[in-house]
Design brief:
The complex is a heterodimer of chains A (401) and B (253).
Chain A lengths: L1 H14 L1 H38 L4 E6 L16 H10 L3 E16 L2 E10 L1 H6 L4 E4 L4 H6 L3 E4 L1 H8 L8 E4 L2 E9 L14 E5 H9 L6 E6 L5 H15 L10 E5 H44 L1 H9 L4 H37 L8 H27 L3 H6 L2
Helix pairs in contact in A: 1-11, 2-9, 2-11, 2-12, 3-8, 9-11, 9-12, 11-12
Chain B lengths: L7 E12 L6 E12 L3 E6 L5 H8 L7 E6 L2 E2 L5 H11 E4 L11 H11 L4 H14 L15 H13 L5 E5 L7 H18 L3 E4 L3 H4 L4 E6 L2 E6 L1 H4 L17
Parallel strand pairs in B: 3-8, 3-9, 6-7, 7-8
Antiparallel strand pairs in B: 1-2, 1-4, 4-5, 9-10
The chains are: A alpha+beta (401), B alpha/beta (253).
Chain lengths: 401, 253
């Protein structure tokens, strides 16, 4: 009987193809919007987390200045090597501590030149930032200590300056210093903030301090915590230590910042998922509007087909048979709309994530939810018209013109 | 009038139907007694507003009487609810209407099969019985046609086939010839007579046309919600012209 009713409903909907399609359109738009928004949102938050993760695992970035928290600009003194040694010896949760001095310099090789970020650091910098070598070697401890003119370059630098040639062993001018290329980093791609992480030259800290900047300042300290669970503890310990070392009075603001990249990743993805939920909820409202469209058309349907209902009742249909017939029609409309909407939504999220280079994620849960929701909309908004049809008096219905 | 030996399909005892209440009260039926025997072909006649349609609706279990007793095949059905009446219609009663009342854009066969759908008859058997019913009204070859492709007489034949397909105990025809031209009226009446005589189907027909009433075995006359009288057509139809004598009325005196 259900099958029979289903066939009857399908035929009825085919009869008014245009009307059925327009009625379904509300549900199609609603379902596809929910699915596309949720999936794209998930993909966006996934890719942000992914990119921030690429900066380095369990990474803490310590830099002078109050960071983003303070609105007033307070010039803050840079760190010293003594600060770094203090962190190394007192912060137990710090696995690697990489002091860096950064500058921007012109690079020249033969007749080619470009400008890049120069990181003066130690081999720990490679570890904290998850850089690996594609070829060549790291700096030796001797080179680091002595401040030799050697450098490890990123993939972008190699492309810009060496083209197809082999950079290893070649001489490169960095500012006024000529240095030898000893290693090539594996390409990392763009960071979450859109920076090219491969446009970089790494040299011994001392070389950069003495020969490029002319100070012994340390701009930024990169620290890897022991585990993701210990980043918060490490952050607290570093903050306490540096406040003490920099003589910051109780209650005064920090004149440095410790940024937990994992925390930032979580905050970003949390705000993305809040947006996703919000947008999904707005899209769900359009599903509701679609449901009202179905109810409207079904009410028109019942009025138009009053005589048919009368005939069916006269030849032995129970009120419940008529009810079922109209309810099934409404549910077929809404679930068919739901299925088409699912296809459109998945297609849209694929197109968008693909074109934006984000991972394509389809949550089966979202699909089931959207399908169930559209079926529920059919039942909910089909009930009133179906009830109206079932309650018709057969005699009056038969007389209806 | 009736022969006690025959079994009554329908027996109305003191049936009243009152619409509205107080000053607006309308007595559509007022103490109607009527009986339809198995295998009989009767006509219910009367002016409009005489109560013949209300009677038809009550006999057909489309409506419930306000008071009185209605025995359908010996069982009192006067107090039944809508669903119970629907079940009675489903299993025992076939309807033919003045306006044919076929489902448009649905083939003749599907129209005929519809009562069987509600009786949960399997598809294959439905088709067989539907085709047989169409055959019996002379439309065996036109089962794929839609109502709009059929003439009025053919549509009414489809409607009759639909009423017959579930082998009802009672065929109710409400002005079955009302929308047809005179030649087709004769066709339809002859079909109903043939079904009544050959297959023993009990037929009750509402009509206001004396010509049509002349085909039946017994006429029940209504006026103002009451039975005015009943008898053989030639006895009752004195006021109007009787163009054709009733055909072989059988063993009736």
């Amino acid at each position: 009987m259900i099958f029979q009713t289903l066939m009857m409903a399908m035929r009825e909907l085919r009869r008014n193809k245009m009307r059925s399609f327009l009625t379904m359109l509300g549900i199609i738009i609603g379902v596809s919007a929910v699915i596309a928004l949720v999936n794209i949102g998930k993909a966006a938050s996934e890719s942000v987390r992914d990119q921030i993760g690429k900066l380095g695992q369990n990474l803490l970035i310590v830099s002078p200045g109050a960071g983003r928290r303070s609105s007033s600009y307070t010039p803050a003194s840079p760190f010293t090597m003594a600060d770094v040694e203090a962190i190394r010896s007192e912060v137990r949760r710090a696995k690697y501590v990489a002091p860096t001095a950064q500058t921007s310099q012109d690079l020249v090789v033969g007749n080619k030149n470009s400008r890049s970020t120069i990181i003066g650091g130690t081999n720990d910098y490679l570890l904290t930032r998850d850089y690996t070598l594609a070829s060549g070697r790291k700096m030796t401890d001797g080179e680091v200590k002595a401040g030799r003119a050697v450098c490890v370059i990123g993939e972008t630098v190699r492309q810009n300056l060496f083209g197809s040639g082999d950079p290893l062993g070649a001489q490169m001018r960095v500012g006024k210093v000529s240095c030898q290329v000893i290693g090539l980093l594996t390409a990392k791609g763009q960071s979450g903030m859109g920076q090219d992480q491969d446009d970089i030259v790494i040299m011994p800290l001392r070389t950069v301090q003495r020969r490029l900047i002319g100070t012994t300042d340390i701009n930024t300290i990169f620290i890897t915590a022991e585990s993701s669970a210990s980043t918060a503890v490490a952050e607290q310990q570093i903050t306490d230590l540096l406040r003490q070392r920099r003589h910051i009075a109780k209650g005064a603001d920090d004149d440095f910042s410790v940024r937990d990249m994992q925390e930032i990743a979580q905050a970003v993805s949390a705000s993305t998922s809040t947006m996703t939920t919000l947008l999904g909820a707005i899209a769900a409202v359009s599903l509701l509007v679609g449901g009202i469209g179905i109810m409207n058309i079904m009410l028109v349907n019942v009025t138009e087909r009053t005589r048919e209902i009368g005939i069916r009742l006269a030849i032995g249909a129970l009120a419940s048979d008529v009810m079922l017939q109209f309810l099934v029609e409404a549910v077929v409309l809404s679930t068919l709309g739901g299925l088409i909407g699912m296809a459109v939504g998945v297609g849209t999220s694929f197109a968008v994530t693909h074109s934006m280079g984000m991972p394509f994620i389809v949550e089966p849960g979202t699909l089931f939810l959207a399908f169930g929701f559209s079926a529920a909309v059919g039942v909910l908004f089909g009930y009133l018209p179906a009830h109206k049809a079932a309650r018709l008096n057969p005699i009056e219905a038969l007389r209806h013109e | 009038m009736t022969e006690p030996a025959r079994e009554a399909v329908v027996e109305l005892r003191g049936i009243s139907k009152i619409y509205g209440s107080g000053d607006a009260e309308v007595r559509a039926l007022d103490g109607v007694d009527m009986r339809i025997d198995s295998g009989e072909f009767i006509a219910i006649m009367g002016a409009s507003g005489s109560g013949k349609s209300t009677t038809m609706n009550i006999v057909g279990c489309l409506d419930a009487p306000t008071s009185g007793e209605y025995l359908f095949r010996g069982v009192d059905v006067a107090g039944l609810g809508a669903d119970e009446r629907a079940m009675l219609r489903r299993h025992y009663i076939g309807f033919v209407f003045q306006g044919f009342n076929l489902l448009s854009r649905t083939s003749a066969l599907e129209n005929v099969e519809l009562p069987l759908v509600y009786r949960r008859v399997p598809a294959k058997e439905r088709r067989e019985r539907g085709l047989a019913a169409l055959e019996s009204v002379g439309l065996g070859s036109r089962y794929t046609h839609h109502p709009s492709e059929l003439s009025g007489g053919q549509q009414q034949r489809v409607a009759i086939a639909r009423a017959l397909v579930s082998d009802p105990s009672l065929l109710l025809a409400d002005e079955p010839t009302g929308n047809l031209d005179s030649a087709t009226k004769v066709d339809i009446m002859e079909l109903l007579v043939r079904l009544n005589e050959d297959r023993g189907i009990t037929v009750a027909m509402v009509t206001h046309e004396p010509d049509m009433a002349a085909y039946v075995q017994r006429v029940v006359m209504f006026r103002d919600g009451k039975v005015l009288g009943e008898g053989r057509p030639e006895e009752i139809l004195t006021s109007g012209p009787v163009s054709r004598p009733p055909r072989s009325v059988g063993a009736r005196p």
